[in-house]
Amino acid sequence: MKLTAIIPNFNHGHLLRETVASLMHQTRLPDEIIIVDDGSSDNSITLLRQMAHTNFRLRYIRHEHNLGTAAATNTGIDNARGDFIYMGAADDRPFPELFEKTCQRLNMYGNAGLCGSICQMTNHQKGLAYKFGAGIPATMLLPRDVESVIARGEFLLSCCGAIWRKQAVVEAGCFREELRWHTDWLLLHQVALKHGACFVGEVLSEIQQSSGSYSNAGKRRSSEQMQVLKAILANVRQCEVESGIRRSGALACFGKEMFYALISRTGNWKYFTSNYLRQLPVWLARIEGKKILPNRIIDAYLRRAKLKYEKKTN
């Protein structure tokens, strides 16, 4: 099975060499690397031209205008030759064994739509770090198992630490551009709830978070965030796995804004399932607590979670 690594890029020329190096240092090399430049105004194209000249695995595609991360990634998917695809970002850091271990699991579990792993989330600005996805069982999860993990509030996966089966992604409609910084959430749930997912219980990637990132900055713009959440609802109502999303209470992870969007229309009240109502206070504490609690308290909570994870894996 061939593997394509897809990286959207917008004005990250200063990171491109490091990004490509992290892909080329994998113990299982990607069969091709596609970098989609989304209308950059820096030196990205010059660098990509130079790197493609000396690396036969690398090719680049250029958008004349900035269309957004989702559109750039979809361009990469459309042009990918691999059966498996990795969809990262220029500032993501996949660890050397990510491709090898996740592709092995996908080959082992032929029906799984994706294989995830634990991602180390690091926020240097706040001095915080935590393991994203540590609560997911390291095994094959059938769609009903995925639903159970979602209902526990533990189905936390990052694209940075996952390999996807391309056909499953295409069947799901790829990334929905109107969902902007939440577009990976819907794709993840569509693929996992239809095909199932497998998981490697190891830290195989890292994301360095910052308050100015595309996702975090977007969530703080309340009116835009509400429009995105309403778009999520519109897409969920029409998607094939709507019943699984509803039963599992998956929408609780969006906190109070999604609660307001749901309660504003009686047609949305069906999403107030027992799993949703049980998860909502936990997610509210997670989301709102990060905004108001001192870093030392958050750090203490994360350290406790780390000890729990290490005890479980030893």
Structure commentary:
With 314 residues, this protein is an alpha/beta fold. It has 2 domains: 1-90, Spore Coat Polysaccharide Biosynthesis Protein SpsA, Chain A (Alpha-Beta Complex), CATH 3.90.550.10; 94-313, no CATH class. It is 48% helix and 19% strand. It has helices at 13-24, 44-54, 69-79, 98-108, 143-151, 166-171, 183-195, 214-220, 222-238, 242-248, 255-263, 274-292, 295-313, and strands at residues 3-9, 32-38, 58-63, 84-87, 92-94, 114-123, 128-132, 140-141, 163-165, 197-208. Helix 5 packs across helix 7 and helix 9 packs across helix 11 (255-263). The mean pLDDT is 91.
- Largest sheet, if any? 10 strands, mixed
Low-confidence stretches: none
Class by alpha and beta content: alpha/beta
Radius of gyration from the alpha-carbon trace, in angstroms = 19 Å
Total of helices:
13
| Residue-averaged pLDDT | 91
> How do the SSEs run, as a string of H and E?
EHEHEHEEHEEEHEHHEHHHHHH
Percent in helix? 40-55%
Total strand count, please? Answer: 10
Strand content: 15-25%
What characteristic shape results from the CA principal axes?
A: globular
